[in-house]
Amino acid sequence: MIKAIIIDDMEQARITLKKDLQAYAPEVEVIAEAGGVVEGARVLKTVKPDILFLDIQMQDGSGFDLLDILKEINFKIIFITASDAHAIKAFRYAAIDYLLKPVDPDELKEALKKFGSEKMNEAEKYKLLNDTLKSRQKTHEKLALHTQDKIHIVNISDIMRCESNVNYTEFYFTNAKKLLVTKTLKDFEDLLGDQGFYRVHQSHLINTRYVKEFVKTDGGYLIMNDGCSVPVSTRKRPDVIKMLEEL
């Protein structure tokens, strides 16, 4: 059994989540619960979970306040949150799972599915989350990427381009390293669109700082700094030319 703790200041939210877990994830056993930061910290000192379901906003502080109290984080965190655009974007940068209230059963199952398949480095992801949350500016330095067996924390400035591979995305880096990431290209277009990345084709997202030249013949394609060719779709061609003129 997977041992879980729920920390949420709304009793009804805890009851509902427990019922959802019983119905959709019977392999998860709720071994303790708490209604706030202080009570949660006390519980976590004596009870060690595999997964912590953690509300963000509580009456005596935030879920982040609670995590800052802990000496170590050696369990998976799944945040429970109302709609908060800045917090949600921070979760996505740090590859930390979150569930929106009211919790959707399919999203709950999807978050739990990752538990047994990835190597745990929640402390590193939480540090990235903290840094992202503290920064209200548009640009961010790092991004957490899920592969099949682990999570990689990478410098965004080192990403040269991304290429769609069905339901996966192939990342190409300036050092010639590659990573096959378990999310779609659309996910990263949304995340990196304000970071200097541009989707020039249905299957290609490029970092504009590494564009070497645009070849107008043969339908139009980009040459990147590493010499690779990236096709530009006919529909995107005028926008790409305009984007390059404004660099």
Output the keywords.
247 residues; 32% strand; alpha/beta; 8 helices; five-stranded parallel sheet; elongated; single chain
Could you explain the architecture of this structure?
It is a single chain. By secondary structure, this protein is α/β, with parallel strands linked by helices. Helix content is 32%, strand content 32%. The chain has eight helices and 17 strands. The strands form five sheets. It has a five-stranded parallel sheet, sandwiched between helices. Strands 12-11-10-14-13 form a five-stranded antiparallel sheet, covered by helices on one side. It has a three-stranded antiparallel sheet with strand order 15-16-17, with no helix packed on it. Helix 2 (37-46) runs parallel beside helix 3 and helix 4 runs antiparallel to helix 6 (122-134). The protein is elongated. It starts with a strand and ends with a helix. The model has no long low-confidence stretch (mean pLDDT 89).
Please identify the oligomeric state: single chain
Order of helices and strands: EHEHEEEHEHEHHEEEEEHEEEEEH
What portion of residues belong to β-strands? 25-35%
Distance between the termini: 54 Å
